[in-house]
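Incident review: delayed structure delivery

Summary: a single-chain prediction request sat in the queue longer than the usual turnaround. Root cause was a stuck worker, restarted by the on-call engineer. No data loss occurred. The affected request and its eventual output are reproduced below so the record is complete for anyone auditing the incident later.

Affected input:
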Amino acid sequence: MTLSDLTLKEYLAGQTSLVDAELDRLVPSESTPPETIHKAMRYSLFAGGKRIRPILCMEAARTVAGREVEGAVTVACPLEMIHTYSLIHDDLPALDNDDLRRGRPTSHKVFGEAMAILAGDALLTYAFEVLGRAGNARLVAELAGASGTVGGMIAGQVHDMEGEKRQPTAELLDRIHRAKTGALLRCSLRMGAIHAGATEAQLAAISEYGEHIGLAFQIVDDILDVTQTSEQLGKTAGKDAAQQKITFPAVYGLERSRIMAEEERRLAHESLASFGSSARRLRELADLIVDRES
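Output delivered after worker restart:
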């Protein structure tokens, strides 16, 4: 049975297992000294995430190459390390001050604030060690840029923090979320495409797809924060409104936000036209991002 024969549920389960096995191989074991930091790193890394970013990376590589691409899973894993580090730090009292993540107590609740900070730092550092060993400087630059302060994830965090209690505007909302969430999702796809040897036209199409699903992801995230319970989300619901954050429902309302997510889904599908049937899974992943309930 090939990957194309699998249902989406089977495909996602298989890809998640691949990523988990590679992360387990790459990240030092809990018995490796100093044990506490490795326990803290692995506690958050293996807390049951959906692995959307590494899966997008691997699938972009397949879409471009039309086949499995050697080393794609290793290139994909640093994306999950960066994402997990950002969640550990985001949950700290100095930032969003959350006690729950993926249905479990957050890192600083289990290991203390100092160790949680170090666990995030360690995952960030190790992500670039893994990519450096893979030997592609362009991939290192892509991930660093998407994680950084000029249009990257940290820029988005800063805009988000500074936007609290300010009048919500469409301009500020766009600035926050294209950086905070969109940059790393787009980077996931670009890294997979680059690793597979994409042409400039292929990379442009994959990047456009990434722009649309990145925006869709955040719109849906904002909607779920309003409409779902903490149990359904696996994290504290309603925090965006409580902290007066600038969100899509705050700017546009729930109904308009849902329409916007559907539009981004449509545009994401259109971006993949040149790939034909080889982009089937990327189309399904766009649908999954918009239709998810947690």
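Verification: The first strand starts at residue 100 and ends at 101.
Action items: add queue-age alerting; document worker restart procedure.
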